[in-house]
Amino acid sequence: YQRRVRENLTPQFEAFANSSSGNDWKQQLPLFEDALSLWLDKTLGHTVEDKNIFRSHAAFYEKEFLDDMKALNIRPPHVISRVSEYIEEVIDYILQIIKNGFAYEQNGSVYFDTLEFQKKHKYAPLSEITGAMSGTLLAEGEGSTNKYASEKVNL
Predict the structure, then answer these.
(1) Model pTM?
(2) Are 117 and 142 in contact (CB under 8 A)?
(3) Which of 27, 46, 87, 113 has the largest CB neighbor count within 10 A?
(4) What is the C-alpha to C-alpha distance for residues 47 and 141, in angstroms, rounded to an integer?
(5) 111, 151 in Cβ contact below 8 A?
């Protein structure tokens, strides 16, 4: 994390230091915005009390996306569903999967238990349907680059 912040911050800092208006921080703030946002989120994100900030942040990017789609002459959707509006339903769904024995909790995360699921159902990445499939391909697709892969029971 620190390396990523340093990599993002160094070019902006150099531009700031070399600028003729180094004292005008309001003009220079956009140079640091990405790296500063990472740092603020990491160090102070847990202190946010106004939850509307999350919706307004998402709304900004949602508008950008819809504007881009309009510029590409793509018709707008009739309905926009936001997962944040269905958190209770998502939690209930995940709890049901755990209750059915097809998922488990490990260190605050929930993982799908592919081997347990395959005992009763076809799971394409482990089945013959997709050709010469094996757990190796599953690990390659779902676990090999995941930093939490060591927490998984089945890779």
Answers:
(1) 0.51
(2) no
(3) 113
(4) 35
(5) yes
